[in-house]
Each structure stands twice: as structure tokens, then as C-alpha cells.
Design a protein that fits this description.
Helix content is about 30%, strand content about 20%. The protein has about 575 residues and is an alpha+beta fold. The protein has a seven-stranded mixed sheet with strand order 8-7-19-20-21-16-22, with helices on both faces. Bound molecules: flavin-adenine dinucleotide. Pfam families: Amino_oxidase.
């Protein structure tokens, strides 16, 4: 998918409203999409360093992108992976029908994530709009709260109460945090204005929860408790947000400012096609390596195994030891697994990071998340109930156990998929100890209360697929979400790739991935932190950015996230 904003836009007064929003992170408003699209490329390493091996720990999206860009720069990424390429972009196939898939992690990708879509285009993947609540491709949405169901084909079909809730949220954003001004600055990539407003918001709201922000806003104070409650249960855009209520409001503002909660697309065939595709993709513009070389080719077709320890090596580099004992020393290592794993699962030498970095790593707060999918014989939800004139089943938001049920199909007369339930935190923990069948039974029981005349179970074919990310030792959680007061930790983790002022003993390991980014839970952050780590690695090896295309570390002094006292 090619985006209209792939090239820099002139800043003409009054034009800003027409420009698209990008996930230009307000903490560090660097245009990664322009950086990637620049014909000069990302930089070069000294000739003597061409072919140098660099370790990449983790073959999720961040690791695969880091490896892909190292390859393009003429370096040799050696990729380590404990499980399967793709990480949290994991797509499972229903065993009875290969090709019918379930995205267990990331599944809907905002159009504003331009760096992510740069790689979707690189691999040539097809995308389609994701059927979120009330979106144009969602035939109908049903909101069921406290036993009362509201059926809607468009937002206008909902009772005025829901319009009031949505309007209160928009008003709270406008009145409390200058929403329109921030979005206009994001559209025109006016980094000075973005930073001026955002740095003030960070200082004022770092210690505020999402719920505290809602409850304290004039817009919601003038409404009833039921408005706040419905906002939490239904949200707007992607579904209910109340399991995020205890998180820092800054986490939510980054999402809504950058339209990350809007205009979502899914990857046809499953999200995992992106990391899989990049793993075996041979770039056209290679340095040093012969035409046709891919990351897979440099790694003999498979990644190395799980990393058991990361230490300072005898040669002064970074020594990586695998679970089964193989050891190799590298001049640099890019580490992309969830950062808790650096202390909980990997024996990491303490002196590689400053004590305050370890504090930041340990304070990471991960969301739990579970999903349960079933395959059905056909997208029967498009059938119309003659008694009501409505679709027999709708995309459903409910305060019952499943919370959100999504309907996914690739056309009539083919097997389709129901994501019976997608939950976070407390709602996800309710299922942690249950099997896939037990979860499915519970979801069907709840849905039967909402749709008493529909026999969903009779359409199910084969076995359900379920996941609880917190139960997987290679992840230990779904994705990070900072708590109030955590900004300082995030700022340390994000900025660690700029290492030239660090003591020598703390250089050479570059952290990247979802939880190093300011937008954890969105693949765009995995992409952009991989690019930071690649920039850091190039600099570490004595290289530099391409002329005319400064990298993220080159503009650090101008754009760096605000440092709180
Ligand atoms: P990972 O994918 O976690 O990659 C790290 C890799 O390290 C893993 O493959 C892991 O196996 C490996 N590893 C762990 N330990 C070791 C070891 N000792 N040695 C070697 N390798 C190791 N994003 C969106 O944009 N849209 C969404 O809709 C969305 N929804 C999501 C829903 C869920 C439930 C989850 C979990 C995530 C979602 N995300 C979404 C976020 C997105 O999936 C992530 O941002 C992205 O996949 C993270 O990639 P990563 O490479 O940073 O980390």
C-alpha cells in the first residue's frame, strides 16, 4: 500500500488540515518514513567493517527489520530466536484449512504507521480494512451493556447517549490537552510546535492515570458516571478501553494524537507474512553482498537458537551464548526481546547497563492479553434474520466475559473466522488457567445470552485457537503500557541507542523493539526502534549516516524526548 505522505510536504498555511496524520511520536518527532524513503539510504560503514557480524537477538518484527537494514548496509546480521520468526506478529493456521488464519498478536495496523507500511510495501503484501466496531467494512455492530443491546449499522443508529459519550471524550481532549493544535502540528510535521505542547503535557500529566484524566475533565464531570462507564466499556474506534484505565494517560494520548486507533488495516494471509517476507527478501540496493542475498541466506536459512547469556567478551565485544552452549563474540548486538527477559530469562552481565537502565527495565509494565478464535463454515453473520431485518450476528462489544467479538472473512462461501474474544489485563487473566475448549464454551455461553436464537456452535469447524501472551516464557506479557510516573524510565530506554557519551563498558548492546518504543502495543514502535538501533550500530562501528539524510541519532540534540527532573 503506498501512502500519499511518502514524500515531504510543503508547509503551506491552511494546508495542514488536508495532510495525513502520521505516527510521528510526539516525544521524538523524527520522520522515519522520510528517512526510509530517502534515495541516499541509511548510511555507510567503513570499508574495513563490511561483512562484520552483528548479533540480533529475537526475530520478531524489530529483529527482522534490524537484520534487513544491517544486510543492506553490508553488515552480516546473525539472528537468534528462541521460538519462531515473527514473534508477536504470530499467525496461526487452522489445521483443517491451511490458509484460514488467526493473528494471535498484532492484527490491525493504523494507516498512520508509515514506517510499518514502508516494509509492507517492500515485501509487496496486500492489506484490507480491518472490521473494527462501526467501521465501513463492518456490516453491523452490537453494543450490549448491562443486558441491553443496541444494534447499529452506522454510528447514527445508536441512541444519543453514545453520541454524548463520544462527544465528551473529544471535548476532554480538546479542552485538556490541545488536541486540535497537536494534530495540526503532526499533520504539518511542525516539530517545534509538537514538542512545545507535548513537553508541557508530559510534565503535567506523567503522574495521571487514564481514568483520572477522564474523571477530572470538565467534559466528563458534567456527565453522569454512566457516561464514564460506557466510555470504558465501549471506547471509540477499536473497542473498550477500561482495562487501560490504570495506565498513564500519556500512553493513551500518544495513540489518539497520532490516529493509531483509527483506519486500521489487516494483512491478507496474516500479519506474520511481514516478518517472514523480510527474512527471505533480497533487497535491490545491496552494499558488499552479491545480488540476491537475504537475511535468511546469511543465516543458512534458520536463525540460531535461544540466547542464554549476554556478556562482555574477552576481545572487548559482546559475547552471546546460546542455550545449547554455542558462543560467539560480536562488535555489537541488537537485542529486541521484551526487556524483562534480560534479567528473568537471559544471564545478562550487569555492567553492560547503568543501574538506572536496569531500574527502567525492571519497572516495565506489561499488559496481559488473550484471544480465542474459532473457524466457521462460512460468514453466516451476513445472513439477515427475516423477523428483525438485521444481520444475525454482529461485531459485538459487551461487558460480559468476551468483551469484544470480531468477525473476519475473505468472501462468501468460504470458511471464515470469529475472534470470539479479545481481552486485556483483568479480563484476560480470567482465562489464563483455562483450555481452548473451556474458553470457547464460556464465550459461546455469553454470546448465547446476547443472540438467543443464533446457534453459533453449529457453524464451528475444527479446533479453537487461543493464546495468553503472559503464559509464554519468551514474552511474559503481551505488550508494555507505562504506569503513571514511568515516563522517566521510558525516556532512558528509548534514548539508550545514542551511546557516544556512555562509558566504554556500557557500549555495544542496542535495545530495540516494542517495549523500548514510546508506542508499545503498536508495531510501528518495533519498526522505528529497530532503525534507532541500526543507526547506533553503524555509529559504533565507525560509520555515518548518508549525506543529506540524517538519522535519528544525528538529530538527537534537537528532537530528544524531554528530560524530567
Ligand atoms: P517480539 O515480537 O516480541 O520479538 C522478540 C522475539 O524475541 C520473539 O520472537 C521471541 O521469541 C524472541 N526471544 C525471546 N527470548 C529470546 C531469547 N532468549 N533468545 C532469542 N530470542 C528470544 N501492534 C499493532 O500495530 N497493531 C495491533 O493490532 C497490535 N495488536 C497486538 C495484540 C497483541 C495481543 C499483542 C501481543 C501485540 C499487538 N501489537 C499490535 C504489537 C505488535 O505485535 C508488536 O509491536 C510487535 O510484534 C513487536 O515486535 P518486536 O520484534 O518488538 O518483539
Amino acid at each position: 500500500m503506498t501512502m500519499a505522505s511518502d514524500l515531504p510536504h510543503p508547509r503551506v498555511p491552511g494546508e495542514a488540515a488536508r495532510l495525513p496524520i502520521t505516527m510521528l511520536n510526539p516525544d521524538f518527532p523524527f520522520s522515519y518514513d522520510h528517512y526510509l524513503a530517502h534515495p541516499a539510504g541509511l548510511g555507510r560503514v567503513p570499508d574495513l567493517k563490511l561483512g562484520t557480524e552483528v548479533a540480533v537477538v529475537g526475530a520478531g518484527l524489530s529483529g527482522v527489520i534490524a537484520a534487513y537494514e544491517l544486510l543492506r548496509l553490508g553488515l552480516k546480521p546473525i539472528v537468534y530466536e528462541a521460538a519462531r520468526i515473527g514473534g508477536r506478529l504470530k499467525t496461526a493456521e487452522f489445521s483443517a484449512a491451511p490458509g484460514v488464519v488467526a493473528d494471535l498478536g498484532g492484527m490491525r495496523f493504523p494507516e498512520s504507521g508509515k514506517a510499518f507500511y514502508h516494509y509492507v510495501d517492500t515485501v509487496g503484501l496486500e492489506t484490507r480494512e480491518f472490521p473494527n466496531p462501526l467501521s465501513a467494512v463492518t456490516p453491523s455492530t452490537l453494543i450490549e451493556l448491562e443486558g441491553t443491546a443496541h444494534y447499529a449499522e452506522t454510528a447514527d443508529d445508536l441512541p444519543p447517549f453514545f453520541t454524548e459519550v463520544a462527544e465528551a471524550w473529544r471535548r476532554a481532549l480538546r479542552e485538556e490537552v490541545d488536541f486540535d493544535a497537536v494534530q495540526e502540528a503532526l499533520r504539518s510535521r511542525d516539530v517545534a510546535t509538537i514538542k512545545r505542547i507535548w513537553n508541557r503535557i508530559v510534565a503535567e500529566l506523567d503522574e495521571q492515570t487514564f481514568y483520572g484524566f477522564i474523571a477530572g475533565s470538565a467534559a466528563f464531570r458534567e456527565k453522569s458516571f454512566a457516561h464514564r462507564e460506557a466510555f470504558g466499556q465501549v471506547g471509540f474506534g477499536t473497542g473498550g478501553w477500561d482495562t487501560d484505565f490504570s495506565n498513564s494517560i500519556l500512553e493513551i494520548l500518544r495513540v489518539v494524537f497520532t490516529d493509531a486507533d483509527d483506519k486500521h488495516r489487516r494483512i491478507l494471509g496474516g500479519a506474520q507474512r511481514l516478518p517472514d517476507g523480510l527474512w527471505s527478501h533480497a533487497p535491490d540496493d545491496l552494499v558488499h553482498w552479491p545480488k540476491g542475498t537475504s537475511v535468511a541466506g546469511l543465516n543458512g536459512g534458520v536463525p540460531r537458537g535461544a540466547v542464554a547469556s549476554i556478556k562482555r567478551g574477552e576481545g572487548g565485544g559482546i559475547r552471546i551464548t546460546e542455550k545449547w552452549g554455542a558462543t560467539r563474540e560480536f562488535e555489537a548486538a541488537i537485542v529486541t526481546c521484551q526487556s524483562w527477559l534480560l534479567s528473568a530469562r537471559i544471564d545478562t552481565e550487569e555492567t553492560l547497563f547503568a543501574p538506572e537502565m536496569w531500574t527502567a527495565i525492571e519497572r516495565s509494565h506489561y499488559m496481559q492479553s488473550s484471544k480465542t478464535f474459532v473457524m466457521v463454515d462460512r460468514p453466516f453473520w451476513n445472513d439477515i434474520d427475516p423477523a428483525t431485518g438485521r444481520h444475525v450476528l454482529s461485531m459485538t462489544l459487551t461487558d460480559r466475559l468476551p468483551r469484544a467479538t470480531y468477525l473476519l472473512d475473505d468472501g462468501p462461501d468460504k470458511p471464515a473466522v470469529i475472534l470470539l474474544s479479545y481481552t486485556w489485563n483483568d479480563d484476560a487473566l480470567k482465562f489464563l488457567s483455562l483450555s481452548a475448549d473451556e474458553r470457547t464454551d464460556l464465550m459461546l455461553h455469553s454470546l448465547k445470552k446476547i443472540y438467543p436464537t443464533v446457534d453459533i456452535a453449529s457453524h464451528i469447524v475444527g479446533e479453537p485457537i487461543t493464546v495468553s501472551w503472559e503464559a509464554d516464557p519468551n514474552f511474559m506479557g503481551a505488550f508494555k503500557n507505562n504506569l503513571p510516573g514511568h515516563y522517566r524510565y521510558q525516556e532512558r530506554l528509548f534514548g539508550h541507542f545514542v551511546q557516544h557519551e556512555l562509558p566504554a563498558a556500557q557500549r555495544g548492546v542496542f535495545l530495540a523493539g516494542d517495549d523500548i518504543s514510546f508506542t508499545a502495543g503498536w508495531a510501528e514502535g518495533a519498526v522505528t526502534t529497530a532503525l534507532n538501533a541500526v543507526w547506533g550500530t553503524v555509529r559504533h562501528l565507525g560509520g555515518e549516516s548518508a549525506p543529506g539524510n540524517p538519522g535519528p541519532g544525528d538529530v538527537w540534540d534537537e528532537l530528544a524526548p524531554v528530560v524530567l527532573d
